[in-house]
Structures are given as C-alpha cells and as structure tokens.
Amino acid sequence: MKFAVLDFETTGSTAQDRIIQVGLFIINDQEITDRYTSLVNPGMSIPSSITALTGIDDEMVKEAPSLDTVMAAMVPLLQDSVLVGHNVAFDLGFLQRALDEEGYFSFDGRVLDTMDALRVLFPGLSSLQLSMVCQAFGIVHERPHQADSDAEVTAKIWLKCLERFQELPLLTLQRLELVFADSASDFGWFLFEMRQYKEIHSPLDPEADRYFRQFVLNVGDWGEEEDVRDADDVRSIPDDFETFYEGLKQVLKQRFEAYEDREAQVQMLGEVEKAFEQEQHLMIEAGTGTGKSLGYLIPALYYGIKNDKKVIVSTHTINLQEQLRERDVPPLHDLFPIGFQAAVLKGRRPLLMSS
Question: What is the spatial distance between Cα 265 and Cα 267, in angstroms, rounded to a whole number?
Fold first, then answer.
C-alpha cells in the first residue's frame, strides 16, 4: 500500500479557519519515499494563541505560497494513497474543504488513524498524545505543533505500527478482523488486508506460537521457554515460608542498600501465603506505599514453585498488567533462587500468568 501521512496547522478548528502549514509524507514499501512541506499564506491574521502554540506568526507566512499553489503540489501525491493521520478527522476535514475551494474532487480514498492502531497494538501506552507516543517509542520530535515535524513523526509511528502488524500471528489478525468487521471506519478494511497479506506470506505455523482456545499466548517474555526448574532446586527451597523470606531479604539487602522492611507488606506476605496454604479466600485492603504487588507476587511464586502449580493474576486494568510485566516481575527473576516463567494473556480482562 501507498500511505500519505498528513498533518495541518491551522488558525483554529472551525470551518472558517484556514491552513497555515502542511506536512505530507509518502510511505511506499515501508519506507518514506517522498515528502512535501510548506507554510501557507492564510489571507488572514494568525491568532496569538495559535502563534503561541505553533511558533508560526504573520511575518513567517507573509511570503508563503497561497492555498491554490499548495494544493496543486499535494494532489498528485495523494492519488492512489491511503490517508493516515494522528487524530486524522481534523486533518481530513480541512483537506476536503481545501480541495473543494480550489476546484478539486474530494478525497475518496481510505482513511486510517494512527490512534486506532496504537490502541490495539500498544495498549500499555500511558497517553496517545503525539509527543508522549514519540517519547515512548524513542522518536525525536524536535518541533511539536509544526506540521512538517508532526507529519514526520506520525509517519515514523505508522511505520512502527506496520512492523508490529506484520509480527502478529495470523490467528491474532484473524480475530482482530472479526472484532472490527462492522467498524464504521476503514480500520476493519485495513485488518482484512493485513490478514490476507499474512495468509499469503506467513501462513499459520503451529510450531511458531503457543495456542489456547483460538488465542495465541505470548509465552517466554521474561524467561526461557524450556523448563527452567530443576527438581533438586525445588527441593532446596525451605518448606517454611518465613525461612524462605528471610533468605530472600538477605538478597534484597545486598542488591539494594536502602532496603528496609515495611510492616504492612510483611503482614500481607504472611497472610497471602497462609491463604494459599490453607486454600482459603482472602480480601485485603492496603494503602498506597504498602508494596502490594510484591506482597502477593512473592508468596504466590513460592507456592506455585513448591507445589508445581500455575498462578493466575487477574488485574482490573491493562495499565496495572503492564506495570506488573515491566516493573514488578523482572526483578523477581534475579531475586528468586529458582527460575520461573511468566506470560501475558490479553482479552476482555487482563491476566498475568506465571508458573
């Protein structure tokens, strides 16, 4: 596909406002192959609030080309393209008005929003604001709120999305296509195209992934896929949790000089371990700073390893799931005297699985 990544800066957001800058980047075969950027003389004064936001003032656009010249340069680049933008509805509205004003046919191609793809592919992002996404992806965004810079980073984000789409297993794409089959946007169409591409170039390989009830499991993110436990290692773990935890604390103190016990966390560790051993339900209300995640992860892992059982942690939000995956579980690989595996299962409710 050929993608045209577009961004406008304007004097405002109403139908009476005018374009003051355009950034257009063309992607072919997953490479940026062409670009067009220009200031635009709007034929009106730029509001001070827009100047404060974009850095573009009346003096900068005084000698800039008019809209008819800019559209004449853009229209050939837009032909046979899928239009892409970050919050693309805003840019599409100004594009259609500009085409109409200058006597061109309306843009009738497919339209995709990077925000839709980011929500699906990177659900752990804390914000979909363009500058925040750039920061998360390590993309340098030199001049936020200027169309040439915004369009360039949006193109780079879209390239990352395309790469991620192609990495997804075929079964995952098939299920995503079903979810968005009735979508009013072109995102459902795009998933259909990606699924067809995958079926031709990378058909279903039962050896490449692990499957469970028509879901692909992401296994081995934090450890080797082989059995990382040795029977002698398991037997070496103390049968008494307090003894085990005392040994773990010594490792913690060696790694972190500032480590100190939190009374509430120690109490939680004991209660959770007791609930596991006695096969009882337990409800805990713990305040901020208690260290809740380790308060249940440590006894849960201890119990799972000693009894050769899997433990499932169900979280209320994807953000909490990502916190466990990125911040809380990795250090436990270094601290625990025996290896373990962990995997994420994403569905209508987030799950963290470990064994």
Answer: 5
- Alpha-carbon distance of 41 to 69, in angstroms, equals 10
Task: Quote the mean pLDDT of the chain.
Answer: 84
Over its C-alpha atoms, the chain yields an Rg (Å, rounded) of 27
* Lowest pLDDT segment from 11-20, 106-115, 298-307: 298-307
In this predicted structure, what is the pLDDT of residue 258?
61
Helix (H) or strand (E) holding 263: helix 263-277
The neighbouring-strand residues paired with 111 are 83
Q: Which long-range contacts (CB under 8 A, 24 or more apart) does 222-226 make?
A: 222/325, 222/329, 222/330, 222/333, 222/341, 222/342, 223/333, 223/339, 223/340, 223/341, 223/342, 224/339, 224/341, 225/341
Candidates 36, 108, 45; CA nearest to 71 is: 36
Q: Which residues of 214-228 are buried (b: 16+ CB within 10 A; e: fewer)?
A: ebbbbbeebbeeeee
C-beta separation of 53 from 82 below 8 A: no
In this structure, are residues 155 and 79 in contact, taking their beta carbons and an 8 Å threshold? no
Listed residue (93, 340, 60) closest to 222, CA to CA:
340
Q: What string of H, E and C letters represents the secondary structure of 91-148? A: HHHHHHHHHHHCCCCCCCCCEEEHHHHHHHHCCCCCCCCHHHHHHHHCCCCCCCCCHH
Quick one: residue 68, left, alpha or beta (phi over 0 = left, psi -120 to 50 = alpha)?
alpha
Per-residue pLDDT of 178-230, as tens digits, reads 889 888 889 999 999 998 888 887 665 555 555 555 555 555 444 444 444 45
Q: Which two tokens stand for residue 234?
A: 């398991």
What value does the mean pLDDT take over residues 57-63? 95
Side by side, which strands form the sheet with 351-354? Answer: 210-212, 215-219, 342-345, 351-354, 311-314
Smallest Cα–Cα separation from 114: which of 98, 91, 93? 91
**221: its two tokens:** 């993110």
